[in-house]
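stuck on whats below:

***
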Amino acid sequence: MSLGQKIVGTVSIATLLWAGATAYVSSNTKAYLEKYIETSNSLNQTNGIKLSLLSFEKGFFSSTVKLSMAFSDPRVAEVLKLPLTTEYKIENGPIFFQNGLGFGLSRISSSINFNNFFLHNAELKKSIADDIVLNSTTLVNFSHRITYKGATNPIVGNIEGTKITIAPFKMSGKVDANTLLGEFKLTNKALKATTQNGRKILLENLELSGDIQKIFKNGFYLGTFNLNVGSVSVKVEKELFPMVVDNASMKLQVSMNENQDNSLTMDVSMDLDKGDTQLPPKINFAKHLHFEYALEHTKLEAWLSFQDSIKKIQHKQEAILKTIQNTTDNELVMDGLQELIALQESLQNEAARCISDALIKDKSILKMATKITDKSALEATANLEIYYIAEKKLSTDIAQFKQEFLHGVKLNTKVEVQKSLIHSLPPELQQQLNMLLMIGMVKEQKHAYTFDANYTPKKLMLNGVDKSDMIRILERNL
């Protein structure tokens, strides 16, 4: 066999294999899509969001799909044209030739004009001349892993005299097609607003991201979520705003993870840096704030139940508020207000029930830590730890719950402020510190002022001194 025959034979076989694979993928694309819709609807049922397949025009190399999204919340219908309808072009794998060479089961592209979704599109046009369009590409690989990316156009407009300029929103992520678990990221380089009075707000380098590890049927998520704001600047008249925000930044992380014993641990951390911001005099010494919060080893099923209860209470509140808004009958209004008060009490009791069900003896711990740093890297720190040690389950009656909680925990806390930092404090705060020193609430060390508290049921130690008599005062006021 000549070299030319071998090449032709190889190409012919490869072409047949590709054609066969393409036929298989194209024949299964609708099934993959229906499975995705089924999973999405199952996970979003409690959120009132439902996807539907309106049409599927099958082709050998590509297909055209129309989907609709409906919302059960009637307030959405007051703003958007429901159901929302979108069209997608699907290239059948395993090899893609349109829009660049690629490999996978399917490559999906769309161009969504958000203006078409709004009921008052004409009014939106008056404020923002250009349509807001999201162009996106999604790749489904051979392992049913979805990778997507997309971006909007820049948004420029004038809303009631306020000029806005928004850089393109960019989105990306990777998720499992069968579970919809995975990562996402939404970024924006800059959002700018200027009012008629010359007030200016500038936010730069915004990022919202997350890694979703588990989704429950009631919409409760496990995973890690991040919000970063690279820079915030606000320039307004000083008499209207007590400080000038300049180049401040923020980082926020929230994580909820399931432990090996099926308990839940929630962690929150936040960092605030003032940059060149001029804060009010009492706190202007602070340069950076770091805060941590952790609630470790609580029963996951208690939080799932609490979320269900909260949603029911919210639906009742919304129905009552709608009745109040749509009536001129004073008697109905008063009845509605009484019902809202009763629901608020129900919410408090529900919170007590959740905490009572969630806490695990000798395992559940609440930790909080704060650190304030000035421009010279001097620090003030505060740490708190509360351990749950109750022998029996706490009452769900809110009044009794407070008493039982006090006798069912032990507590350790420590506050420390470096002496050199005290000189940065305003005179009134220094006077308050001297008063606390006099009554023994603050202790003077070599390089710092400290406050230590250790509590176990019926016993309280402050800075090494027994202050258990204060517990009885606290009990009477609960």
Summary: Residues 330-477 form one domain.
